[in-house]
Amino acid sequence: MRGPSRHRGATLDDVARRAEVSAMTVSNALNHPDRLSDETLARVRSAIEDLDYRPNRSARTLRSQTSRLVGVRVERSRQDRAALLLDQFLHALAESASGLGYHLIVCHAAGDTAELAAYQELRQTTAVDAFVLTGAHRDDARMRWMREQGVTFACFGRSWDPDPESPGAFPWVDVDGAAGIRAAVEHLAGQGHSEIGLVGWPADSDLGRDRERGWREACADLGLPARVQAHVVDEFDAGRDAAHRLLDAPRGGPVPTALVCVSDTLALGVLRALSERGLRPGRDVAVTGFDNSPSAALTTPGLTSVDQPLADVAAALMRLIDAELSGVRPSATHALLPPRLVVRDSSLAR
Amino acid sequence: MRGPSRHRGATLDDVARRAEVSAMTVSNALNHPDRLSDETLARVRSAIEDLDYRPNRSARTLRSQTSRLVGVRVERSRQDRAALLLDQFLHALAESASGLGYHLIVCHAAGDTAELAAYQELRQTTAVDAFVLTGAHRDDARMRWMREQGVTFACFGRSWDPDPESPGAFPWVDVDGAAGIRAAVEHLAGQGHSEIGLVGWPADSDLGRDRERGWREACADLGLPARVQAHVVDEFDAGRDAAHRLLDAPRGGPVPTALVCVSDTLALGVLRALSERGLRPGRDVAVTGFDNSPSAALTTPGLTSVDQPLADVAAALMRLIDAELSGVRPSATHALLPPRLVVRDSSLAR
DNA sequence: CTGTTAGCGCGTTCAA
DNA sequence: TTGAACGCGCTAACAG
Questions:
Q1: CA nearest B222: which of B177, B282, B176, B182?
Q2: Quick check: A133 pLDDT over 50?
Q3: Predicted TM-score (pTM) of this structure
Q4: Residue nearest to nucleotide D9 (CA to C1')
Q5: Does A123 lie at the interface with B, CB-CB under 8 angstroms?
Q6: Domain A12-55 adopts which CATH fold?
Q7: For residue A5, what pLDDT is reported?
Q8: Given an 8 Å threshold on Cβ–Cβ distance, is A74 in contact with B90?
Q9: Strand C: which nucleotides have any atom within 7 A of a protein Cβ?
Q10: How many whole angstroms from its chain centre is CA B207?
Q11: What would be the CATH architecture of the domain defined by A67-176+309-339?
């Protein structure tokens, strides 16, 4: 019979006996050190060290109704998407969590209904104190549920609700997509392009509309037309097809010499289309993406892309959550972080 | 007093009262349903349903010394590596864990010492029942620690210890790298290549030597020379430089018409080198990678690569862990899974 | 088959 | 400033 190895660690009582105090004093040494005299505190601490004592998580959780665990969903990464920010984001989140004394618990869900069910289960079993969500959309069922249940959470991705004070508002951290696209457009204009097209997402995407706004406004500011555009789903083939359509210049319209894409997935599809047409990226048609995903650096030619500051996003999210759990009113319930353009050969005329 | 975030769920006693049985009976209904009569079982279950009862994780953990939590480390993904299998693997692992009633707890560590410390902390606070490790190497300190502590674990990546019965052995699941490379070589030979070079890792890598063996053996079986080779670290630039060197054919040696790479990172670097030399991938020089990372499908031309069955790996790992935790002797303590070659344009002559 | 007893390890009462 | 009791919610061990 070899069941789970039962690790008998030192308990609070063991430490108490060794330090010749009561268990409560040891507990206070951990949670309210200011309540102890310096002398006993030192004695308790050395006993803790001697025994290599760690408080038992479950006992603590059971007693205090707080687990210092944060739930986060991992999504299956589809092979046709370059948006593989997840593992970078997850690492950053784990790091930030760790710094504030939290751990991450990963929750798998295959679909939106399952996602809510998984959150509910983690919540009801008092396994987690809070959640980190990603990709909010208008009228998001997850946000509604969280608010109804009074669950602490923060979201990577802003609330697109037009009224920031509305009940739909929630704590979020996001990257300024419009600014990122604007930087790409300005860079392309600096390379001498004057007909800069957009490969964007469908109009029902708030995120896509925000990035599109960056393109439109930058073009306006530069005195350039913002007329060549496509709106497609975020898939490689969709980007490829869109590029072919735009470069075919339907009805004798203008032919773009540069294409700004709202994702690396689309941009990589565009690069494929250029190759199929015998066009050289950068020299013949400049291309930029968004996300600075690993593929951007590794493809040939390198893809110019907008880099999201994931470490900062993660840190800000964890700070929001920690503030809420600590009962502190945070100075701001959301943050919009600036991205950074990483220039590679796909956009250089050279 | 009770804040909104303190959601008091139903307890075992609540269910017991409602079903007019003792708390113990409810517990049995959950954990040993066979010990109950059909009639009481049904009554208890309906009470559970009525109250939407979920057992409290911490209480259960505290009592049973088992958390059904599995620890896994997430590593920072370096931008110059395509081996971004992590998030796919993590998702697969979360899915398999979920299917067996486990959850994943993510542990961040910046370095090997920190990794051990993080494991230790999770272990000592009785937060996790087991660990999933990745990337074992000879004389691995993590494995040694796990065994010494009697901690349950399983590893993605085999034990390279020459004697499988030695104390260094441990439960693992791995992908047959030699077979994957062999498939790539056979495919290239089928495309008419007869001078197939290898871009491998340094000789001190067991994993790299295994993949190299696949190349050597396949060439021997096909009656082809296995002489053109480079051994470099797993970085984009290293792959790029290696390709240049091999194609320069030092000392008038043979010029390879195909390059088999032991990782996608290296292969993508090779593709860059080809572009710099004005050579067309597939037509002039065929290239294959290993991992079938997202970039393989998204780069242009598409990169032929060896796909690792991550979902199967994850499932096998969780089965090993579950068996060990359940005190069941598993039929085998390790598994070597076959990979699958995904052919794309980088290796096709036309 | 079902109920009773007795904690798991910790932290919040209180009292000293 | 420190200590004693109690209970968080659940389940192993034993009755009945």
A1: B182
A2: yes
A3: 0.91
A4: B59
A5: yes
A6: 434 Repressor (Amino-terminal Domain) (1.10.260)
A7: 36
A8: yes
A9: 1-5, 7-13
A10: 14
A11: 3-Layer(aba) Sandwich (3.40)
